[in-house]
Amino acid sequence: MPVNQSFYLSRALTSPVRLPEDLGRGKILELLALDGDPPKVVAVRLKTPQGIRTVAWESVTLTKEGKQSSRYTFHFSKLSEISVPENAIALKKVLLDKQILDVDGRKVVRVNDIRLAIVQSGTFVVAMDVGMAGLLRRLGVDALVRRIVAAFGGSLSTTFIPWSRMEAFVPDQHGLKLSIDTANLKTLHPSDLADLIEELDGHSQAILFKSLDAEHAAEVLEEMEPEAQAQILRELPVELAADVLEQMPSDEVADILDEIDSDRAEELLDEMEKSASDEVRELMEYEDHEVGSLMSTDYLCFRDEDTVEQVLGELRSQKPDPEAIYSLFVVDAHERLTALVPLTSLVISDPTQKLSEIEGSRRLHSVQDTATIPELVELVSKYSLLSVPVVDDDQKLIGAVVVDDVVYEMLKAPRRRWRAG
Amino acid sequence: MSKQKTYWKQFLLLLAIIGPGIITGSVDNDAGGITTYSVAGARYGFHMLWSLIPAGIVLFVVQEMNARMGLVTNKGLADLIRENAGVKVTFFIFIGLLVADLANTTTEFAGVAGSMQVFGISKYLSVPIAGAAVWLLVVKGSYKMAERIFLIFSAFLLTYVVSAILAKPDWNVIGHAVIHPEIQWKPDYVSMVIGLIGTTIAPWMQFYMQSAVIEKGLKIEDYKYTIIDVAVGCVLTIVVAFFIMVACASTLHVNHIEINEAKDAAMALKPLAGQFASTLFALGLFVASIFSATILPVATAFYVCEAFGFEAGIDKKLEEAPQFYTLFTIILLVGMGIILIPNAPLILISVWSQVINGILLPLVLVCMLLLVNNREVMGQHVNGKFSNVVGWGMTGILCVLSLYLVFNGLFG
């Protein structure tokens, strides 16, 4: 979902409004949203020269004077009256200025402003602005203060609580209290935050991202769509971005860096630790259609001399993902792939047996790093493989592809063809 | 027997509920209040006593509305103003209140310093000790404990009754003056009346009253007892004010002694009414000052936190309500600090705090009346006709009087 625009409720309530044809100018009095997760704006209460009207939000477009300016104009291409469901949330009346409580009912802060994002599927409430910047914006002095603060070399902080953190409404009779567990963003599930961050524009994304530690941020970044990932890496300071990338598997990093311009990618690689960046560089050398560009260099393999007992012990301590150990990769002293041992065979074997002695070792399905992805896809679907070892020209094990990555490629393939055609 | 039992039960309930009204009323008679009453008594004798009657009515009507709003909404006045009037109005009111309350807190510490000077204790000793005691009570104490100490303070203010009786007033003259006051239509006299009513209902009290009702955890079922609490508080306030004026009128006015400060009154009483009356007067001033020096910073921190949605309350621990206690401490320190500056311009500070209060009072009252009549906020408990007539009438008069006071303060 690419973000077209985002704006604050306070701007909507104070910005000039242009009505269609010669109806003159209007003023937005209230935005009405469907109670959802997140709430979608469906209607707007407008003050027009012809009186107050409730019209559909769809026909609104937003223009901004200059790129940095915060002056908006709301354009209505047509005014179509709309009836709003009774349980719709009136954003100004119900949310703005209301108290936010934590799960223990303790007061945390008030809603100073509301951040909305216009995406393809509509306009949504994405976060509550609870910071000083929101307060100043409401007072109409934010631009002034921002300039003064900037003159002293500072910047005005914006603090958001994402809508997804609003756990429950406590609708008492005089307004709404929202509930969040703590003011700390870290307790949020990475994929939830990723969804939210994708819906925010670049600037606020970077702000939210900075509040996470590198490991947590890496988890979130992995969950995001490629465009959003690239966007984040462009916005974040180099050091911070490099820290985050170091926490991620090298194949993921290679994929992300492929998406952004090469100068910035080089800058990020230089900033990363050498061991991590070398691996990424190698992966990035593969062409897009080659298996090497898809493979993970983070895999489990065992020596043919290891006993079943040793291997089981190792597996217990490593606790790998199930799809990664459906078949175990076995290599010899020269790191050459010699066998694939199914987990089932391992379990029923004698603990003192060596891996090389296990009967029923699977046929050696492997791919070359320079093989094409369609070849890999064919192999995977033909033999119903969950993971495939990747070898180089010398039959040396250099990586692995798990079925998850292949499924993604399989789904992507027809679309590509369709696009090309 | 059973009837007696229910009465007894009701009385116990009443005792459990009283507090906010009496405390708020008593804090009215703070250092500034006592000064105003003393000066009024010394300058105009008994001819100013009548103004306590309208002052008492206004006080009761306003406080009853605050108590009712607190009971119905379970939200502070600052909460309601922020939620219904938006950021701009809230911001204006609270910047004003913050400045005015800083100035008022300073005046309270001036009262502490002044009353202790009567006993020959230096302000460099009395003010820091008083400040430390106040801080400990609020930060370390619970609401229950603080309320008990406040109620004892309130009772202490009755020492003014003894001071007044020691001054041997002529009750016939007093009775006549109340019924047939000699109202003078001179600017000085009018501004004294305004000052007197103004000191009785300060803007910050409305906020404190409502918040105290909530912090005490009272519900709308407790309304009839809360009303008694408010009424007792108002009567107590007016009685104390009455006796302060009587004490000063029957001694200082008769002997044509002009005073400018409450501590002057305590000093002047010594040759006229005896050492004991003078000591009691000074002690009353001390208690009133330290009492208000506690409540004012608490109230200020309370409603600023409410407006911005931070946790607040005497019952909360330091780490539960950091903003509340930080703000409280800053106000306390600034108030004390100004007093300890040699030759601080105290009179200027007190004039400006009155001017700001004068501007804010009508604004706060209008906000209150709009809120208390808003059915979405108050449900079935909106104002009745009587409260509205009295409320809007008083607000109108107070607006005019306050404007007069403001212009008087600025250009007079």
Mean pLDDT of chain B: 82
Structural class of chain A: alpha+beta
Distance between the termini of chain B: 65 Å
Fraction of residues in β-strands of chain B: under 5%
Largest interface: A-B, 19 and 21 residues
Specify the biggest β-sheet of chain A.
11 strands, mixed
Q: Any low-confidence stretches of chain A, pLDDT <50, length ≥5?
A: 182-191, 414-421
Helix content of chain B: over 70%
For the termini of chain A, the CA-CA separation is 24 Å
Count of DSSP H/I helices of chain B: 18
Describe this structure in words.
- The complex is a heterodimer of chains A (421) and B (412).
- Chain A is α+β, with helices and mostly antiparallel strands.
- In chain A, 37% of the residues lie in helices and 26% in strands.
- Chain A contains 16 helices and 21 strands.
- In chain A, strands 1, 2, 3, 4, 5, 6, 7, 8, 11, 12 and 13 form an eleven-stranded mixed beta sheet that branches. Chain A has a four-stranded mixed beta sheet with strand order 10-9-15-14. In chain A, strands 16-17-18 form a three-stranded mixed beta sheet.
- In chain A, β6 and β7 form a beta hairpin.
- In chain A, α15 packs across α16.
- Chain B has 412 residues and is mainly alpha-helical.
- Helix content of chain B is 81%, strand content 0%.
- The termini of chain B are far apart.
- Chains A and B meet through β10 and α3 of A and α5 and α14 of B.
Structure characteristics:
heterodimer; A: 421 residues; alpha+beta; 16 helices; 37% helix; elongated; B: 412 residues; mainly alpha; globular
